[in-house]
Amino acid sequence: MVNFISLSQLGWRQFFQQQLSLDELEQTIIGRVTDHHRNGFLVITQQGKIKLPISNRMPQLTVGDWILMSQENRFERLLERYSVFRRKAAGTQQAEQLIASNVDTVFIVSSLNEDFNLSRIERYLMLVKESGAEAVIVLTKADSCELPAEYVDQVRKLDPMLIVEAVNSLDWTSVEALLSWCKPGKTIAMLGSSGVGKSTLINTLLSESAQQTGGIREDDGKGRHTTTARSLHIMPTGCLLMDTPGMRELQLVDCEQGLSHTFSDITALVNRCRFSDCQHESEPGCAIQLALATGELDLRRLNNYFKLKREQARNRETLAERKAKDKDLSKLYRSVQAEAYKRKKG
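Request: output the structure for the sequence above.
Response:
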């Protein structure tokens, strides 16, 4: 990052400008979160970099957020996001975790080796389409694959409108195919599981070793996980490039729209079933079973659709229960505090 940079170079646009009052324009510092660390954030402003410690008065922030700060570099306000990526927090914790915000295009990265997985790509597509950002599928390690075109065809069968690029991340001429999305002031995010080559691809796009890279494990062909924190970088083209740690677990929540868009072929078939409560098993007039029998629909894709549908419904329900429980606890605490205050007064 350079010491001085304009807001437009950081991705500022009319959407954010319209959220500010005249006083805020004159009295606050506008910044964008570019790095998220355990104990705080790095914020880039027109005046340079600011380290912002985490405090209780902050909402949940993520890389890509636009915020307002006081002249003393204290957090004031989070601006509304035009896109946001979230997932259920990993493990047993019943909470949502923000991944990134204010992204224009997402490169969903998958490698052309043993790690290639159509169901995982569908999972990422759900996340991206729920946010409203554009999705581009980037298949890396094309140099180590004998027939990369066959993998490209497999992905395109998920949706004929999908944009799919197979690249050798170490070859600049191969990676140039991605530059049409990397315009000045635009924000690109990379999502993918650990070891698919995101860091190598980022280094090539940035023309520098911005990210540490790891080798390939010989036992299963999978790359080593190297990125451990979210970060935002500026490309030579003026585009903002966001990296995220490889995700070993991506639990979905509140992705009904993303599910519908990602599996639009299946939702269209469901609407053609004779009965509105069809279970898609042995009912007469089931369009799903007919599509399976004729080869119009792939069984793997159908099974993944039902799996993701159950998962996002289950996670949404558990998070709703957690929020309701927290709300009841807050009411109880306020009631106890009010009673204690009355007794103290007398």
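The chain has a mean pLDDT of 83.
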